[in-house]
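<derive_structure_tokens>
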Amino acid sequence: MAVRIAVGVSESFDPVEAFSEAAGDAARQLDAACDLCVVFAGPPHLPLSKWVLSTVHERLEPANLIGCGAGGVVGAGREIEEGPGAVVWAASMPEADIHTHHFRVERTGGEVAVTGVPEELPGDCLILLADPYTFATEPLLARLAEARPELPVLGGLASAAVAGAGALFRDGDVLAEGAVGCSLSGVPVLPCVSQGASPVGPEMTITAAEGNVIEELASRPAVERLSEAIGSLPPRQQELTRRGLMLGLVIDENRPEYERGDFLVRPIIGADTEAGTIAIGEPVRVGQTVRLQVRDAESADEDLRAALATQVEALATEGAAGALLFTCNGRGSHMFNAPHHDATAVGDALGVPAGGFFCAGEIGPVGGRNFLHGFTATMAVFPRDLP
């Protein structure tokens, strides 16, 4: 049984009209029962979220639905970066087992506990949409890493909220806090993460570290070794390091050599020249391999197209039915000169449109582990034919 996916988009200022139009287009394209619907609503639509959901349910009658408020939306090869964007992503997956979830966090003293997680979370993939103001995503990812280490988690942080209006949707409910998720099994999902950075300079091994502070690289003070590596770069790459220097950490060391997709990219957030140490936005360990990373529009474009080419190769003759795209709100026109960059790249590579939104943080796996990212384009790609 084949998977079928459709995407409806509207820029109407009237929320009911916008989602009636988007859901109606999706329903006509799908022409089948909707097993899963994912909804992304621009800020002007959020005060009437209940009406939005009623309209989508009326038009599509989805068996399962999740969604969130979005500062910008992506659909059908277009990127609507602000204003009243409305996207309805609809899928027919008759062989899939689908469950929606609402996760919350409770703080007791200095501890953060995630609630709403089933004792045995079902599914082979989890789509996650979180409110960044009321939910701590990383504790959930840490918990899932222990309970379901093989489970890919893909999604993003809601990037729009309006006072007095919920920013999350689950089935027929509008929720003001936490995170919503959708676990899927019986349908293949290919994770795709493009961090938009290029590795430069030599690989180096961490030889002394504590927490997120690197004390030594290749048995020399980290600052000294980093300066030497930067000095060895061509002028163009040196210029990029001055705009913002990052470090890539190898997560899965069990490879003969490391390519760009093997590095978790994190910013260098501080340096102590006297102590010779550097601090990055991620815990590190002795023995870990690292490499300098640079990011600009050219490297981000190259990285996305390389990541998509890998997906096309994995799809073989099956082809894609569609994709969910979670792209950083720092990308789009903020990063690229041409409009609709990520949406166009996905359409060019997969031959099908994606639905998604501009996130305040993106979620996806690197080296077999799930992370919260920035400046990333993360995708859930759905093959057309079930095995």
